[in-house]
Design a protein that fits this description.
It is built from twelve helices and 14 strands. The protein is an alpha/beta fold. The protein has two domains: about 220 residues, P-loop containing nucleotide triphosphate hydrolases (Rossmann fold, 3-Layer(aba) Sandwich), CATH 3.40.50.300; about 70 residues, Alpha-Beta Plaits. The strands form three sheets. It has a six-stranded mixed sheet with strand order 6-7-8-3-9-10, with helices on both faces. Strands 2-1-4-5 form a four-stranded antiparallel sheet. A four-stranded antiparallel sheet has the order 12-13-11-14, covered by helices on one side. It is elongated and about 75 Å long.
Length: about 325
């Protein structure tokens, strides 16, 4: 549905986007991640026709963003990071205005506006001036205008900005409900949000693609060892040599305590074999009380930090392979 090839964008001598390549499949929700200044918003503005690329091509639904800009905009809904709203208009009059701008069928106007105000829970403020609304409600108005006409493609830049926790969950549920119905490219700084709604993620840094895949795929590629957390009643000096009896374990660290006689250990071991059963048997046979044993999986935050906040260290062969 969306295909980006060799995309670059310069502002004078500054390269905001640097030879990006990625695809968003039809009906997929793709999360776009990166630190401030990574090029996320610039990329989205190119995809929506607000900016022209310096180099490369963008195709949406088989159409070229330069040759078919107006046709692409007719199937696209866009929520920018800073939502442009007319504050002296009511919510309803603004949505009617956008409805006509999009060239939607007049006979569907009432039904369409009712639908998006319901989806974005704007019913109680429908007649109020936008300028009198909270930032959270203004964000919902921006999302409602993007949803008008059920566009095939949605590009959402920070869709939950300014919302309270309850509203964030509601917008997340709304976005998830669109999966399979609309193709969505979502940018956000809230990493749990990406994990909650996205099928895949792409991570960019300094305008370049750093990694792409599901969080599980990225964690597997980045992890150099299997990590297991165990909670045991017993002293570290005694437990550590017992754990080292298990083949495949190459390090054991104490990472916390629950009370004076209960410790939490992290075991680093060969990631090829699952040794959790062996670890449990060795501890129990040695007379220790095993309270918990679980894999310590990398979160999306762990992945993000490992990839983009490593003080610009030289990439290894393993991390370079993640982006392929």
């Amino acid at each position: 549905m969306i295909r980006v090839q060799n995309l670059s964008k310069y502002f004078g001598k500054i390269k905001a986007v640097d030879h990006l390549d990625f695809e968003v499949r039809e009906g997929e929700i793709l999360g776009l991640l990166g630190p401030n200044g990574a090029g996320k918003t610039t990329t989205m503005r190119i995809l929506t026709g607000f900016l022209t690329p310096t180099q490369g091509t963008v195709e949406i639904n088989g159409m070229n963003i330069l040759k078919d800009s107006l046709k692409i905009r007719s199937i696209l809904g866009y929520l920018p990071e800073d939502v442009p709203l007319y504050r002296d208009m009511t919510v309803e009059s603004f949505l009617r205005f956008v409805f006509h701008l999009k060239g939607l069928k007049r006979r569907d106007k009432r039904k369409t506006i009712d639908e998006v105000t319901g989806l974005c829970q704007l019913g109680e403020v429908r007649k109020r001036l936008i300028g009198k609304l909270s930032k959270g409600y203004r964000q919902r108005v921006g999302l409602a205008q993007a949803l008008l006409g059920k566009p095939k493609v949605l590009i959402l830049d920070e869709p939950t900005s300014g919302l309270d926790p309850r509203q964030i969950n509601e917008i997340r549920d709304l976005i998830k409900s669109l999966k399979g119905k609309q193709t969505i490219l979502l940018s956000t700084h809230i990493l749990p949000e990406v994990s909650a709604v996205s099928d895949r993620v792409i991570i960019i840094n300094s305008g370049k693609l750093v990694a792409q895949g599901t969080p599980e795929e990225l964690a597997e590629r980045l992890r150099t060892a299997q990590e297991i957390l165990v909670t045991v009643r017993g002293d570290f000096k005694i437990v550590k040599p017992v754990l080292h009896r298990v083949p495949g374990i190459f390090n054991v660290e104490k990472v916390g305590s629950q009370n004076t006689d209960t410790e939490i250990y992290k075991i680093f071991c060969d990631k090829v074999r699952d040794i959790r059963g062996h670890v449990a048997r060795v501890l129990i046979d040695s007379g220790f009380e095993l309270l918990e044993l679980r894999s310590d999986n990398m979160s999306l935050e762990d992945i993000f930090l490992k990839l983009v906040t490593k003080e610009e260290e030289v990439p290894t062969a393993d991390t370079a392979a993640v982006a392929t």
